[in-house]
Amino acid sequence: MQLLFTTLAILITLLLTGCAASEPPSPNLAEEGQTSSAEAGMKWGYIDWKGGVLIEPKYTKALSYSEGLAAVKENGKWGFIDKTGAVAIPAQFAEAGSFHDGMAPARSDNWKWGYIDTTGKVVIKAEYDDAKEFASGLAPVKKDKLWGYVDKTGNMAIDLKFVDAKPFGARDPLAPVFIIEESYDKGILKQWGFIDTKGAMKILPSFTTAEPFVDGVAVVQKGGKYGYTDTNGNFQERVELSAKGAFTEGLAPVDQQGKWGYVDDKGETVIKPRFDDAQSFSEGRALVKMNMKYGYISKRGKLVIKPKYADGLPFSDGRAAVCVNAAEDE
How far apart, in Å, are the Cα atoms of 59 and each of 35, 39, 65, 174, 231? Predict the structure, then answer.
């Protein structure tokens, strides 16, 4: 389950705060090793399941742990630390993602992406315009404005032919891909479908948006309505869902008249809407926002870690990355 929730932590859109871990670095700042104004004063560290500090906030950015390592940014460069906080891979990359299948995407100063192993060795050379994490032995890469998939040896397993592409599901070997095609009777169609690991289209393009599969279903939007598709392409509308409405651990965050709560897979409200924002559950905890601060709740809706952080990420490997405003703590 670790891979599943870590993947969700990367794919679900985070809120736009000064601590946003998913924000790409500014080109000139990355080159010069400086810190952007959005990062100034913001420090990331890690807490345990009860909110105890495991690693003091000292990084300008940080990602969730995955496969025992976490990507952190320090002095304008990204590297990786182990669970004790010791440096596992020295900070040397302009940008980096999390490890999956023993490999992580990393960007060099020439603005090209490649992949490294857990020792920091480059195993797929940096030649791509963009790159995402591995799953099912394949990873989406972008080159010359088109996306395809490479295998772990660096060979192009699925040709560069998609306008956009996302990782394969952690358990279901299907991946969302975006295509533009011209139809004689419908004009130009811009839609998402799903391919298998051979590149064959298994669910025909018919969705406005689509996310990777989780536990046998994928969150999609069709005809302006959110819902799920199963691996056979059967669409089920779920009016309570939003773009980030993936069910994890049996619950999904939903927006009800401006406040967020959680519903079960039958659509029944389990945690009443009282949060300003909410993320999916991971390892029995979910990140929520109240009064401009972030904390964590249990599956019963109890605040187990009080909202006091400027930002945070889902739990993974028994810990969560959290961001504090150093100026406020002085």
Answer: 11, 10, 14, 35, 40
